[in-house]
Amino acid sequence: MQPEPLEQVVRNVDARLTRLEQILPTLATKAELKEAVAPLATRDEMHAAIAEAVARVTRRCGTTYGTCGRRSRPTSRSSIVASRDWRRIG
After folding, report:
1. CA pair distance 37, 85, nearest whole angstrom
2. Tell me, what DSSP letter sits at residue 25?
3. Mean pLDDT for all residues in the chain
4. Which residue ranges make up each domain of the chain?
5. How does pLDDT run across 34-54, given as a tens digit for each residue?
6. In whole angstroms, how far apart are CA 19 and each of 33, 54, 60?
7. What is the CA radius of gyration of the chain?
8. What is the dihedral of CA 51, 56, 59, 65, to 10 degrees?
């Protein structure tokens, strides 16, 4: 290899290393990452919390279909007509 291209390669490597030396001290260590992640909930804990919340809503509403606090839809033809007329009046 000729001396001029080799010098350019060394300069490029030196520039990259300088940038890396500036970034490296700001990165977290493995121990710091473990310490930061430790208080977070595990997958099983999240599933348990979600199941508990769904069970509470189901007990409160008596349904699992998400109609808590809403009227159910009318099923017969006469109730559909009555609800439509009621909307016009109200």
Report:
1. 58
2. G
3. 79
4. 3-65
5. 999 999 999 999 999 999 998
6. 23, 50, 59
7. 33
8. -60
